[in-house]
Design a protein that fits this description.
Blueprint: E1 18-22, E2 24-32, H1 37-51, E3 54-60, E4 75-83, E5 96-99, H2 102-108, E6 117-121, H3 127-132, E7 149-153, H4 155-162, H5 170-174, H6 177-188, H7 194-203, H8 208-227, E8 233-237, E9 247-251, H9 252-267, E10 271-275, H10 282-288, E11 296-300, H11 304-316, E12 320-325, H12 327-343, E13 347-353, H13 370-375, E14 385-386, H14 393-408, E15 411-417, H15 418-422, E16 424-428, H16 497-512, E17 521-522, E18 531-536, H17 540-552, E19 558-562, E20 564-566, H18 572-577, E21 581-586, H19 591-600, E22 605-608, H20 617-633
Parallel strand pairs: 1-8, 2-5, 5-6, 6-7, 10-11, 10-12, 12-13, 13-15, 14-15, 18-19, 18-21, 21-22
Antiparallel strand pairs: 2-4, 3-4, 9-16, 14-20, 17-19
Length: about 625
């Protein structure tokens, strides 16, 4: 047995193949929700990250815990885009589709471009499974797949054969067929194998027989690629030339959790996450619960309202309260967010948006909570809004949301979404010395302006308009806060009309005065572009990729992206008015466009999509090209 290219002597190398060098590849693993496609895709992604490729991923799975087996609603997929250069999206269409059954093929075939590669698990193409998803004829026998490069692999049979001597039952052996597929794809693209084998031994440390069975299946897939004549070519994608530093693969939810941990360290405050599990935000709770050694306290409450109540109570007590949820949970938390506005306490509200309304599409992405975050409370109840633009950016966005909450004594919305939360990309691990100083000065002595020796909770910092923050129980700092309107400075309950007017305007002025950086415009044409593509949240990647394509065609287009949605950057109005046309792609029915038109009286062009899936770069490329052409023609 000879040693393979990756140095693993357990994998055979017996047949020379042609090696094609590529700059990028998009692979989609698809199968039944019980076929382990998320694990398969995640492991391939981890090895691509370890190899040094730039990458971006898009998991896609059913909302049902266990949809009917072999049906289209039960299809789960994982798409990974890896390249030797900086990429922005998980890719529009898969160059390679690995379909574990007919349902996976039917659900994903339309996305595969002509000439693309399809690898099929032929064992699942039974008459019963074909009828279940509406195939009148077997697509392996007619011309359904004539436009593609098709590889038929009896993965279930080959996996059972590889595990025959392990003593596992037929059913248990077949469960490892996803590792067979992973081994085959790892061979095709010269991926390292040691990390996956180590991962499997660690994951199944208490079930060594299962660990070894999965490793045998993984090696069998690799060796099948080496020995079969079906695959005459393998492919290489060189490492990307990224900025110098240490990287790790990270999902948006994990990066956001790490950002909150860093915020606790930089502020010196304990972090309390008061939350209730909800898709797609639950992983934030799971991750933060691992970091008690960093002063993180996680509390899984009985419902959404109790979760935010605990978080707000923690802030009242001198900690930093955080609550995480999705759109339906925000609706339940709205009264408590209003209480945080009235009491002027720091609070971070993480909303990982999903399709709505009501229960909606729990596992699909959307950007439709912007207006809810902006206005979804009774009365004049302004709240700052920060939105990360990518999985890795969630770390910095969490720090920024915390900075605003602590400095201005206000609840802050952190608007992520499903595409960001579950997607992954390389993250440049920052130098701790570069992180912001978030330390807070608590009130330590009475501050009454009438010389009474009392503590007045609504005496404000003249620069930020933030009120003084006193820890309950501090001697001489007794004070009253709550949901009823408060008298300016003293905090006494007040029903005075003039006082209410003053306090409403003070709370609004505090939010309006938050220091946010100016909007930066990317325009390689040096100012020749007359069309601006403006986005927020996870639309950053598709918009950026589309702009790259349009520019390659010789058409100038500018791009800008909003991280701060309330308040807007101070120069936003000037930027909008400096272009003939501003187009705003959103995964909603035009919520940001509505806000921009109302505030700046600029007739932006809204391009919307609410399909539960992110924009495709090719889709936006067509939109931008058409708008640029019409703008030029109108001159």
């Amino acid at each position: 047995m000879s040693t393979s290219a990756n140095g693993n002597s357990s994998l055979s190398a017996v047949r020379p193949t042609e090696v094609a060098k590529l700059d990028r590849v998009v692979i989609r693993f698809a199968g039944d929700s019980g076929d382990g496609m998320q694990l398969t895709g995640d492991r391939f992604t981890s090895e691509a990250a370890a190899f040094g490729n730039d990458l971006s991923t898009m998991p896609n799975f059913p909302a049902e815990i266990r949809a009917p087996q072999g049906t289209i609603p039960g299809v789960s997929s994982f798409q990974v885009h890896f390249a030797d250069y900086d990429i922005l999206t998980p890719g529009d269409r898969p160059d390679v589709l690995v379909a574990m059954n007919p349902a996976a093929l039917k659900a994903n075939l339309a996305d595969v471009p002509s000439g693309g590669t399809i690898i099929l698990n032929t064992d699942e193409f039974t008459k019963r499974n074909l009828v279940k998803v509406g195939f009148e004829n077997d697509p392996l026998d007619d011309d359904t797949l004539s436009a593609y490069q098709v590889h038929r692999v009896a993965m279930s049979t080959l996996t059972r054969g590889a595990l025959e001597e392990t003593g596992l039952s037929k059913k248990d052996a077949e469960r490892a067929k996803n590792m067979f597929a992973l081994g085959l794809l790892s061979w095709m693209y010269h991926r390292p194998t040691e990390g996956t084998e180590r991962f499997l031994r660690e994951k199944f440390a208490k079930k060594s027989d299962i660990a070894e069975a999965n490793i045998l299946a993984f090696r069998a897939g690799w060796n099948y690629g080496e020995t079969t004549e079906s695959f005459a070519t393998t492919y290489e994608v060189a490492p990307a030339k990224l900025n110098q530093g240490t990287y790790r693969q990270i999902t948006g939810n994990t990066a956001l959790a790490y950002g909150l941990v860093a915020a606790g360290q930089q502020s010196g405050l304990q972090i309390l996450l008061g939350t209730y599990p909800i898709t797609p935000a639950s992983d934030i709770l799971h991750e933060l619960s691992k970091h008690k050694n960093y002063g993180i306290l996680t509390f899984q409450a009985e419902d959404e309202i109790a979760g935010i109540g605990a978080a707000l109570g923690a802030s009242y007590g001198g900690a930093l309260g955080v609550t995480s949820t999705s759109g339906p949970g925000v609706a339940l938390k709205s009264e408590a967010i209003g209480l945080a506005v009235m009491t002027e306490l720091p609070l971070v509200v993480v909303d990982v948006q999903r399709g709505g309304p009501s229960t909606g599409l729990p596992t699909k992405t959307e950007q439709a909570d912007l207006l809810q975050a902006m206005f979804g409370r009774n009365g004049e109840s302004p709240v700052p809004i920060v939105a990360p633009l990518s999985p890795a950016d969630c770390f910095d966005a969490a720090l920024e949301a915390t900075r605003i909450a602590l400095k201005y004594r206000t609840p802050v919305f952190l608007l992520s979404d499903g595409a960001i939360a579950n997607g992954s990309e390389p993250w440049l691990i920052p130098d701790v010395e570069t992180l912001p100083d978030l330390r807070v000065e608590f009130a330590t002595e009475p501050n009454a302006e009438d010389g009474s020796g009392e503590f007045w909770p609504y005496v404000r910092d003249p620069e930020t308009l933030a009120r003084a923050w006193a820890v309950p129980g501090a001697a001489g700092l007794q004070h009253r806060i709550g949901g009823l309107e408060k008298a300016d400075k003293t905090g006494h309950i007040s029903y005075d009309p003039d006082n209410h007017e003053k306090m409403v305007r003070l709370r609004q002025a505090k939010i309006d005065g938050i220091d946010v950086p100016d909007l930066v415009v990317d325009d390689p044409s040096g100012g020749k572009a007359r069309v601006l593509a403006l986005g927020w949240g996870s639309s950053y990647g598709p918009i950026g990729a589309a702009c790259r394509r349009v520019r390659k065609e010789g058409m100038p287009v500018a791009q800008a992206h909003l991280r701060h949605l309330n308040p807007f950057p101070g120069n936003l109005g000037d930027v909008l008015r400096s272009y003939d046309t501003v187009v705003v792609p959103e995964m909603n029915l035009g919520q940001l466009s509505m806000l921009l038109r109302a505030k700046y009286l600029v007739d932006v062009k809204s391009y919307t999509k609410v399909a539960g899936l992110p924009f495709k770069a090719e889709e936006l490329q067509g939109v931008f090209t058409e708008i640029i052409t019409s703008t030029e023609a109108a001159k």
